[in-house]
């Protein structure tokens, strides 16, 4: 007994294949366009640091000093460090996703302070795509359809 199989062409026909291909390509084009959104936001540092989660997770003994804000004298320098964090932005406003990812970046710097034996991060600046943007009270966040990201760079130190 001879077994026969029907290929895709037999099931869909030429028109069906064209419709399937157009649908798949159209879906890919829509996905590419949606994911390509890159909205740059400048947001207040204070808002992120005043989140209820920030108040419970950020160590009050570690100082975060943005831009050229005055600070106590540096007793010891531990190095310059970068953190680059992303978060899921799906079903969140750009601002909400940015505050959340900013907290994640601050927690990463806090971990670095603990690892290096310091008590502060000074000269903190946004460093998205390795482009420095220094501000005493704002940070840069990039928000897209699916992700939001914050990159920070700062000097881990021990302040007197």
From TrEMBL:
It comes from the Bacteria. This is Excinuclease ATPase subunit. It comes from Vreelandella subglaciescola. The lineage of its organism: Bacteria, Pseudomonadati, Pseudomonadota, Gammaproteobacteria, Oceanospirillales.
């Amino acid at each position: 007994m001879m077994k026969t199989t029907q290929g895709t062409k037999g099931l869909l026909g030429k028109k069906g294949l064209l419709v399937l291909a157009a649908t798949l390509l159209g879906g890919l084009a829509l996905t590419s366009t949606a994911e390509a959104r890159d909205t740059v936001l400048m947001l207040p540092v204070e808002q992120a640091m005043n989140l209820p989660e920030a108040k419970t997770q950020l160590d009050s003994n570690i100082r975060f000093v943005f831009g050229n804000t005055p600070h106590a004298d540096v007793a010891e320098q531990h190095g310059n460090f970068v953190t680059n964090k992303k978060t899921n932005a799906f079903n969140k406003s750009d601002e909400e996703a940015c505050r959340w990812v900013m907290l994640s970046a601050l927690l990463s710097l806090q971990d670095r302070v603990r690892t290096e034996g310091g008590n502060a991060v000074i000269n903190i600046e946004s460093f998205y795509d390795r482009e420095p943007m220094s501000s005493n009270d704002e940070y840069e966040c990039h928000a897209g359809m699916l992700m939001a990201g914050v990159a920070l760079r700062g000097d881990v130190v021990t302040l007197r």
